[in-house]
Each structure stands twice: as C-alpha cells, then as structure tokens.
Design goal:
Layout lengths: L6 H19 L23 E6 L4 E5 L5 E2 L3 H22 L27 H8 L7 H16 L7 H10 L1 H12 L7 H12 L2 E2 L1 H12 L14 H14 L5 H7 L4 E3 L4 E6 L3 E6 L10 H14 L15
Antiparallel strand pairs: 1-2, 1-7, 3-4, 5-6, 6-7
Helix pairs in contact: 1-11, 2-3, 2-9, 3-6, 4-7, 5-7, 6-7
The structure holds glutamine.
C-alpha cells in the first residue's frame, strides 16, 4: 500500500511526484500535432505541463502550466454538466446515451434504434448537447457558455479566434453530423448556429492549471475548491465522472478504464484532465497526439501515476479509498 501524507503535506507530495514523472516522461516525443484543424498544427510541440489541484484548492504546478491552449473536446464534459443541470437527465438522455462507441470521436454515428447520439463525449453527442445551450441567438448562447467556464475558472476565458475560424473552415464532418442530427429530429432547426457555438466552445483557451481546477471541482462533488460555489449538483458530478470514465478517451476508453482507471477527458489541443474523486484534479498538457487523438505524454503520465500509486478507482490498495 502506498503511503500518502496527511492533508497538510499532500500538496508537497503531489508536487514531488509530478516533478518526478515530468522528468521521466519529458523525453517522449512520439505522436503528431492535430492537423485536421490546420491552425492546431501551429503550436510548439514540445510544450509540457502537469498540474494538480486538490479538493482543498491547493495546487502543484510543473512545466508550462501557464501556457494557454484550446480546450477542444474537454469542453464536452462541462457542457454535458450544464445540460444535465438545466434540462435534467431524461431530456439529455433523449439526445445522447451513455454507450461507449469504440469508434473515433468524429465518427458519423447515431444510435438508429433510439434516435440519439451514442454518448456526449463523441462529436455527435457533443453537438446534440451544445444544441441544448439556451439563448435567443448565438451571442446569448455564447455568453452562457463563457459564463459557465467563468464559474469554473474564476475568470472569463478568451477564445482563440484563429483556431475557431480554422474549425469553421474545415469542420465539414461536424457539419455532416449536425445535419444528420437534424434529420433524425434530435436537434432543433438551428444547426449552423449550434455548430458555430460548438466550434467556439472547442476554441476556448485554458491552461493545464485551469484544467486541474475543473477536474478538482468535478472530483469535489461539483463544489468549486476555491470559491466554494456549487457549480454542478453532486448527482450531476457523479454522471460526469461516470461518462468520463466510460467514454472520455474516445476509442481508447475501454483500455483506459482498464489500465488507468481514472475518469478523464482529453482534447485534440493536447489537454487531458483526470478526476480523482474526493482528492482532486490532475491535468497534463502536451500537444503531440496518438492515433486516437489523445496526448501521448498525457497518457504516459497517467499510466505511470496510476500504476505507481494505485490510483485506479477500483484498486483495493487505492490510497484514498473511502474507508481510509
Ligand atoms: N477530440 C477533439 O478534441 C475534437 C474537437 C474538435 N473541435 C472537433 O470537433 O473535431
């Protein structure tokens, strides 16, 4: 059983283990920058950050933790939480189920029997969920999304306009998904606007430290570790964690749940955030991706930490299991 220090020394310990794993993983230079959205290839491939924030709001930050990058698919998790809060589980479930697909995140795929997207973490489900953002027009709906992020981050985030324009220019597959959702009666008849909003949410700029804070909030039953605000209800946080564990890593989700066992969400911008329930959030930024669209170094950091410290949520030796 791994010995973890008490609350006072926890953050120092986290700092130490993150610095150590950072050094061990830094030399890994496999993977490619995402280029199907051309603007995403314009980042420094060597950037690397590891950030942790505990449920008490303490943080340990290593490497390029203040570097901004686009959140991409990690936004899907936050929007899913907002949809559950605003519309309730039943209405959300009518649009997106909770079945992992085993297919790439941008597969043009619907559950034809149930007339819904497979899950909210792949593009079809995410677009169906973004369609649920309330507001009379794009400006109002954008404002709602940015306000949601503001509650998690403690500041209103910026949007990378170049990436957003690039997504817009190259997003034909997402457009195809949007219109398929309309054809199936899953979304409302404002697909072009909803896609604009989806491109925008993916282009929101965050740091690894921001992601760790988001993770810590979700891991803390939806209570923000610093402001103490209830950002999402505990049941919604539970649903977010569950879907993150089963679907958060796209077609790598099964292997991820099996080997790493930490609810997590990745994005093609190179961000990866994991939630350790009751403990905190752990985030990595490194933009070189594997064939699934997950950060290569990000995966390695989580694999090592999970293995070395028994962090799998079902690990009987887990240092922070409820009974300890
Ligand atoms: N996996 C991702 O991060 C995908 C998000 C990206 N904006 C897309 O829609 O293709």
């Amino acid at each position: 059983m791994v010995e973890v220090p008490d609350e006072q020394r926890l953050v120092e310990w986290l700092d130490e283990i993150c610095r150590d794993v950072y050094q061990r993983v830094e030399s890994l230079d496999g993977g490619e920058l995402a280029s199907y959205i051309p603007e995403l290839a314009n980042v420094d491939p060597d950037r690397f950050a590891i950030a942790t924030v505990t449920v008490n709001g303490e943080s340990a930050l290593t490497g390029d933790h203040a570097q901004l990058f686009t959140i991409q698919s990690i936004s899907k998790l936050l929007l899913y939480g907002m949809a559950l809060e605003t519309h309730g589980r039943e209405r959300v479930m009518r649009r997106a189920g909770v079945a992992p697909t085993g297919d790439p995140f941008n597969a043009i795929e619907l559950d034809e029997k149930l007339h819904r997207a497979p899950n909210p973490m792949v593009n079809s489900g995410a677009i169906a969920i973004t369609d649920m953002v309330e507001g009379r027009d794009l400006a109002e709906r954008t404002d709602n999304v940015l306000s949601l992020f503001e509650r998690y981050l403690g500041r209103r985030p910026d949007v990378d306009q170049a990436v957003c324009a690039s997504e817009h220019a190259s997003g034909h597959r997402n457009r195809a998904i949007g219109y398929l959702l309309l054809d199936q009666g899953i979304v409302d008849d404002r697909v072009a606007e909803t896609l604009d909003l989806y491109f925008l949410q993916c282009s929101i700029l965050v740091t690894a430290a921001d992601l760790a804070l988001i993770g810590a909030t979700i891991a803390n039953n939806g209570v923000h570790p610093i402001t103490g605000d209830q950002i999402v209800g505990p049941k919604v946080a539970r649903d977010m964690l569950t879907v993150a564990l089963t679907c958060g890593m796209y077609d790598y989700a099964g292997e991820w749940a099996y080997t790493v066992g930490i609810p997590a969400k990745s994005g093609v911008g190179g961000g990866l955030v994991g939630m350790l329930p009751g403990v905190g959030g752990l985030a990595v930024y490194s933009p070189r991706l594997d064939e699934h669209g997950n950060s290569v170094r990000g995966i390695r950091v989580f694999e090592k930490l999970s293995r070395d410290f028994d962090l799998h949520v079902f690990d009987p030796e887990r240092p922070w299991s409820p009974e300890t």
